[in-house]
Amino acid sequence: MFLREIYLIAVNSFMEAVRDKVPYVVLLVAIALAAFSVLLGEWSVFDREFVVKSVTISIISFSGFFVALFAGIGQVQKEIQKKTIHTLLAKPVSRTAFLLGKYIGLLALIALHVILLSLMLFFVLWTIDGTISLPIVQACYLVFWELAIVLAFAVLFSTYSSALISSVFSFGIYLIGHLGNQILKEVYFAYRISDDGSFLREHGELIYNMAKGVSYIIPNLFKFNASMHAAHSIVLEQSYIIFQSLYALGYSGAVLCLAALLFKNKDFV
Predict the structure, then answer these.
(1) CA–centroid distance for 88 within its chain
(2) DSSP-assigned states of every residue in 250-266
(3) What is the pLDDT of residues 58-72, one digit of tens each?
């Protein structure tokens, strides 16, 4: 019964998301930007194929973030604001099944978005006589798992805050998830070059260890960015792909468990 509830909500969420205009707008903008990357390749000092691969994979990631943001936050908030969630939960449908169903349905939308843009990338490479290689498939596959984590956070934030605040928090997670490793390196570098007797020299190691501890908590989204590997046709090891997939599954599962816990205690009256 529990699995059937999840399945029905997932199908309904996917169909509702497909009927929405936002994913189509994001998709069209992403396709236009990806097509524009061909011109960038012509103007750039780098190889045209290199530019198309690196830019388009980044576009797939960033456009997928917006789909996850608007769909993940919008659908849950819509149910709450329109009070339709009372009807759903009175059937009865458990709150956990409701959240999981929403997440799986929207994850299917994310998968469709990534697949369509990946096919578009293959088409663009074919038109410019580029190489369609395994690293491109691996990079697009990792983008999907990156967005799976982002979507989980979008669902989490939408369970206890407004759409605006949820959007800001989700963007913050996406940003710090990609820049966290670089920030950690900058903190360590600043500590190493600081003068003796300065605050950073005296407390730099503590600050660095604190930043390192935070880096273990926030999602390491930068590890899912394989655009440069794809651009240089560097094949990632299978063990790395498997580990990142399991990491995304585990991290998304933990975030959804927290979301279910908060949602279970939420009062809709």
Answers:
(1) 28
(2) HHHHHHHHHHHHHHHT-
(3) 888 888 898 888 887
